[in-house]
Amino acid sequence: MAIVPTDYSDNSNWLSLPDVKLPVDVLYFYPTCYAPEGKDSPLICDIKDEKMRAKARRYANIQSSVFAKTANVFVPYYRQCDAFALVGATAEEIAKGYEAEPLADVLASIDYYFKNINNGRPFFIAGHSQGSVMVLYALSLYFGRHLDLYKRMIAAYVIGFGVTEKVLRENPHLKMAQGEDDIGVIVSYNTEGPENLSHKNVVVPEGSIAINPLNWRTDEVYASIELNKGSLYLSNSSGEFTIGKPLADAQINLQRGSVVCTTLKDLPQCRSRYVSTFGPESFHSMDYSLYYMNLQENIAKRAAKVL
Question: Residue 229: inside a domain, yes or no?
Fold first, then answer.
């Protein structure tokens, strides 16, 4: 039976559908927010799942806000799969998860956005974790067929899931960022501590390619915490936040394809709760917040190249 995508002409299926006030847009896809409550829960949630929606609103407030000074922020709700259930799954099982309703919704929301909302503006596309998996599918499947639209893309921020050399070989229209202000490129990294490098991290597949979010280099030149212009701090469980002193340094490990941070080792609350999935010193949930002000500045610099 063919999958019927969510109807994005229904405004209730958009987390954020703002009035257009800025000359560029961003389409943002949130990370895994679906948390099944028992063994009998479905692999894929309903689009109206309020617990998923509430968590998505929280993450969008934290992560997509980094674009808000530069871009109109558009966020569709999309059906998600239970990502933890697919750790170690076969290719067929993964296809039944990510490539089923989640992908149908993401592609439908993007198509609706371009046909009814974008009106020719330059745009970013961004995500985190499962959202970045979805962005990668979109970069390949949607923009591979719509290169005219792809030419208006300022950058894709594919954070929290590695973009691999294999993906680039299979999609010759895609290219990774090489500096702080190139456009039409993918910006990608995953943040880990040194202890994690000898452990499996499901969001850092073999062959991943990273850029350093402090010095915007793609080599192993170290960027000290002095280059960090401010990190995001959550003030309470509602997702409200403040910007405060920097928390993180950054150095790419080319063999691993991740960004290594050494300044969080004495903060036990930053350590991974899902060691078997991400490793003991993954800072996955903090990929945006650790480098928040540098990302905000970088987004503005890339947008300035097209304005």
Answer: yes
